[in-house]
Amino acid sequence: MPIKPLYLFPNLFTAGSIFLGMMGVFYASKGSFVTACWLVVVCLVLDGLDGRVARLTNTTSKFGLEFDSLADVVAFGAAPSVISYFYTGYTYGRMGMAACALFVIFGAIRLARFNVTTQTTDPYSFIGIPIPSAAVLVVLAILLDFKYNLFKTQYGYLMLVYIVFLGVMMVSNIRYPNFKKVKWNLKLFVLLVFFLLVLFVRPLEMLSASMLCYLLYGIVRWIFLMAKIIFKYTQK
């Protein structure tokens, strides 16, 4: 049965994500970390477009879902992991290798869990931080360190701790909002315009602040829920 060209269109975005993820790895191997990291950020944009394009063109398919997951392993699992290893992980020998490899493993588990539970879970939230968000948090940390020298040489191990922490967050049961299902209104539109304006002026800082807020939102919400449950239990 011949494949209609329209069905290939959303998958071009997915293929582009794989391509840019691999380009990020190649650039990192040459020491071009800024370019490598921004390529992963662009992958996030492509990842957000492929699903929307598929829904708009009514070309969603099981193949597209599986292809998207494989692309995520490359662009948001392997790419940020290898970039991190070339950036600082290699200085810590096997510990650096293990930390970077764990990020990929946890990311693959996160994707597998998402694929088998996507029809049974709340469509307005994710269980565990999504792998694209975790990947962007990794590369933004590298970009911030490259620009502001946050970790410095003697604190490079904090980068490894951070990578493993994000890996654990991916396979955790902490819920994160799914903005793909957000219903737009005037207030959200105004916030988006403000975000884009600040993003234009200070892209790295605005992206980093936004992603950090997203990461902390899930953690703080989980702490409050646990505290509420414990308080309710102790009152019995």
Automatic annotation (TrEMBL):
PROSITE patterns: CDP_ALCOHOL_P_TRANSF. It comes from Helicobacter suis HS5. Belongs to the CDP-alcohol phosphatidyltransferase class-I family. It catalyses: a CDP-1,2-diacyl-sn-glycerol + L-serine = a 1,2-diacyl-sn-glycero-3-phospho-L-serine + CMP + H(+). The keyword Thylakoid does not apply. GO terms for biological process: phospholipid biosynthetic process. This is CDP-diacylglycerol--serine O-phosphatidyltransferase. It is found in: Endomembrane system. NCBIfam families: pssA. Keywords: Lipid biosynthesis, Lipid metabolism, Membrane, Phospholipid biosynthesis, Phospholipid metabolism, Transferase, Transmembrane, Transmembrane helix. GO terms for cellular component: endomembrane system; membrane. One of its GO terms (molecular function) is CDP-diacylglycerol-serine O-phosphatidyltransferase activity. Its EC number is 2.7.8.8.
